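pinging the channel bc i need a second pair of eyes. not urgent but kinda urgent?? the chain im working w is below, pasted from the shared doc
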Amino acid sequence: MVIEPTCGMLEELGHRVLTASTGALALDVLRLDPKIDLVITDHAMPGMTGAELAHRVAELRPGLPVILATGYAESPGEESKLPRLQKPFTMDNLACALADVSEMPSTSNVVALNVAAAGKR
């Protein structure tokens, strides 16, 4: 269950967090909320991988940062080009990943995704 601690850390860092349990739902959230500044996604989700979601996000919202949270040591293909957040991670790791991807304001809007959290939040 990674989503609840991740959401808590993001909120503690000053961000408004929206969650989605699948990549398709995340894309719907992005279509409905133009204020979203960042997407954090897990590698494994129903229907698409984190890399597939990142590709779809780039088509929908070019330039929107996407961070891939993963427990895998190496990522093949397109996933290797994404900013990564190695699981398990601390708040300091998360803060560094956020700082690395953008000049986000301290009160930005973040969509966090993790299939394990479906229905939890």
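so The longest strand covers residues 36-42. and Confidence is low (pLDDT under 50) at residues 114-121. — does that match what u expected or am i reading it wrong
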